[in-house]
Amino acid sequence: MTQNANKLSICVPVYNRPDLTLRALKSVLHQTVKPFEVLVLNDCSTENMQEVEEFCQASGFSYQSNVKNLGLIENINKTISLAQGDLWCVLHNDDLLSPLYVEKCLDYLEKYPNFDIWTTNGCAINSVDKVIAEFRLFNQDTTIKKKEGFKTLYKNGFYTLLSIIGSTIYRTSFIKNHLFDSAWGNEADLGNALYFLANCDIKYVDVAIYFARMHTNQESAKLITSSLKLEQCIHRRIALYQKYALAFNIKNFLTPIYITHLLQLIIKYRLSYKKSTTMLKITKLKDMLPVLLHAPIMLVFTLKHKLLFTIHRNKIERCLIKQL
């Protein structure tokens, strides 16, 4: 058994969604190898969480409630401060773990011990636990070398990754010194991701063990109901990419970033072309032209990733054994 056995802290920041929280916690309970600890931190939920608390008590999970609402990012930071394991990961309370999650993590941590960050190809599921997408960076285990490694990702159409979803595991002593900056709102995970990619070697392991749920009640989906919040979110993202643009020394670094967000605003949030370009502060044709020219490249990337997912889908679904 690996030296890291039973030293993984799984932390679950909770705000409302008791039914989904129970499903998430059941996926932890059904692990083939038990984690060192499970910390559930209720951030002053307005819904009744009594069943969740009782489940935690019966399962041997630590359940705590904040005195006041901290917000997602600070609640996650608090779980980091409370973690006692050598390794830390977060499970959002609407997501699921494969029952092999801890077992596979310990396997690759033993195989690749000399890192502070490990990430995998997290997957997306819908409301009925059906796998609908994956975020597969490479087709094999790969070391993402600081700065240089990101260029390889960039060339393959990946501009946002290493989210604070549980597909990424951190050495606890490391992440305690790199807490998420709540000033960036829910884009704090992007801020850390870009910082780590610029300053750290990261190990990518080609295994599908974390399943992020896509649904209408998640934070990103709620942005469509508030133009102000959506605009703040987009501006924070663009500002973060601008902040780290020089670190990666990539020509036209921001062009695909703009086209990605433009398409997202039009397709996902259903804004008009004019409103979308205004929100992105693209007002001149000379600024718009390179963005539009990059659109076909983005389409090719999208089709490529969908094709690879189709090929890989059966293997992914076997990792998500029905258990709930």
Walkthrough of the structure:
This protein has 324 residues and is α/β, with parallel strands linked by helices. The protein has two domains: 8-215, Spore Coat Polysaccharide Biosynthesis Protein SpsA, Chain A, CATH 3.90.550.10; 219-313, no CATH class. The chain is built from twelve helices and twelve strands. The protein has helices spanning 18-29, 50-59, 72-82, 101-111, 148-155, 172-175, 188-199, 219-222, 227-248, 255-268, 273-279, 285-319, and strands at residues 8-14, 37-42, 62-65, 87-90, 96-97, 117-120, 123-125, 131-134, 142-144, 168-171, 202-205, 210-213. Strands 3-2-1-4-10-6-11-9 form an eight-stranded mixed sheet, with helices on both faces. Strands 5-12-7-8 form a four-stranded mixed sheet. β1, α1 and β2 form a beta-alpha-beta unit. The radius of gyration is 20 Å and the shape is globular.
Shape: globular
Helical residues, percent: 40-55%
CATH architecture of the largest domain: Alpha-Beta Complex
Radius of gyration: 20 Å
Find the CATH superfamily of the largest domain: Spore Coat Polysaccharide Biosynthesis Protein SpsA, Chain A
How is the largest sheet built, in terms of strand order?
3-2-1-4-10-6-11-9
Figure out the total of helices: 12
Question: Which structural class do the helices and strands define?
Answer: alpha/beta
Mean pLDDT: 86
Element order, helices and strands? EHEHEHEEHEEEEHEHHEEHHHHH
User: In angstroms, what separates the terminal alpha carbons?
Assistant: 28 Å
What is the CATH topology descriptor of the largest domain?
Spore Coat Polysaccharide Biosynthesis Protein SpsA, Chain A
How many structural units, i.e. domains? 2
DSSP strand content: 15-25%
What's the count of strands?
A: 12
Q: What does the largest sheet look like?
A: 8 strands, mixed
Give the low-confidence spans.
1-5
Task: Tell me the name of the CATH class of the largest domain.
Answer: Alpha Beta
